[in-house]
């Protein structure tokens, strides 16, 4: 249960952090504060929820990935490794649909037969304060506008009937599109895996996106650093079986208005060269 304060870190440029193990962590990057909670099914070492954060050479681009892979345990290990490698390869590119398409095309070779995954990839471009969201069959993220103070589901343009943005690993030629949000200071976005939306309310019905959104709106007075544990506790109170039958992962991001320090922009080309040669050496 998430009760203690999260481990707080400041991500360095050209860094990828994540995995599929339990965590309760906080990060600070140019323009964003982030909180990540993950708990594998039955407290196992690793689970089917995979999460990653990355920061580009200058710190201007921050990428967040959340995937819910069908299956548990050892079957997800190669998927977690492949996700990490793809994040590194695409770390300096704004266009995130390339990352999702690459993952989709490689998914069959890196996962068990019949395996698929819902995936949500978000890219924050600090200079324009723009968040791009590519949703491959994942539960809809929630957005809180600081002006209204209300949470609402994000329209990510997902359309299962058209064959666009469906879970990865289903169609080899699946196409993926992104939607965009401009984030003002203290705007927030909440993403999560389906253990939350498939939890049940007091009436026994599934919460769905709307039910999760209603609970988050009831926690409007809760500070961001406490929102995830309060949300999970509220869902557990509705039904003691909630969040017990699957992996659970939640990410919260808040726009903090900070920019990229001048010195980091100067160091960016050297970090890119260092990353290039490191990748070349690994490939040998």
Describe the structure.
With 284 residues, this protein is α+β, with helices and mostly antiparallel strands. It has one domain (7-283): 4-Layer Sandwich (Phosphatase 2c, domain 1), CATH 3.60.40.10. 28% of the residues lie in helices and 28% in strands. It is built from six helices and 13 strands. The strands form two sheets. A seven-stranded mixed β-sheet has the order 1-3-4-13-12-9-10. A six-stranded antiparallel β-sheet has the order 2-5-6-7-8-11, covered by helices on one side. A hairpin with a 4-residue loop joins β7 (117-125) and β8. The termini are far apart.
Quick structural gist:
By secondary structure, the protein is α+β, with helices and mostly antiparallel strands.
Helix and strand arrangement:
Layout: E1 7-10, E2 15-19, E3 23-29, E4 32-39, E5 49-55, E6 61-69, H1 77-89, H2 97-110, E7 117-125, E8 130-136, E9 142-144, E10 151-153, E11 179-182, E12 188-192, H3 194-197, H4 208-218, H5 224-238, E13 248-255, H6 262-283
Parallel strand pairs: 1-3
Antiparallel strand pairs: 2-5, 3-4, 4-13, 5-6, 6-7, 7-8, 8-11, 9-10, 9-12, 12-13
Helix pairs in contact: 1-2
List keywords for this structure.
seven-stranded mixed β-sheet, alpha+beta, single chain, 284 residues, globular, 6 helices
**How much β-strand is present in the residues?**
25-35%
Give the fraction of residues assigned to helices.
25-40%
CATH class: Alpha Beta
Radius of gyration: 18 Å
CATH topology: Phosphatase 2c, domain 1
- Please indicate the count of domains: 1
Major sheet characteristics: 7 strands, mixed
What is the N-to-C order of secondary-structure elements (H for helix, E for strand)?
A: EEEEEEHHEEEEEEHHHEH
The tally of beta strands, per DSSP, is 13
Basic shape: globular
Q: What is the end-to-end distance?
A: 44 Å
Helical stretch tally: 6
CATH architecture: 4-Layer Sandwich
CATH superfamily: PPM-type phosphatase domain
Instruction: Let me know the average pLDDT.
Output: 83
- State the low-pLDDT regions, or none: 268-273, 275-284
- Which strand order do you get reading across the main beta sheet? 1-3-4-13-12-9-10
What class do helices, strands and sheet pairing give? alpha+beta
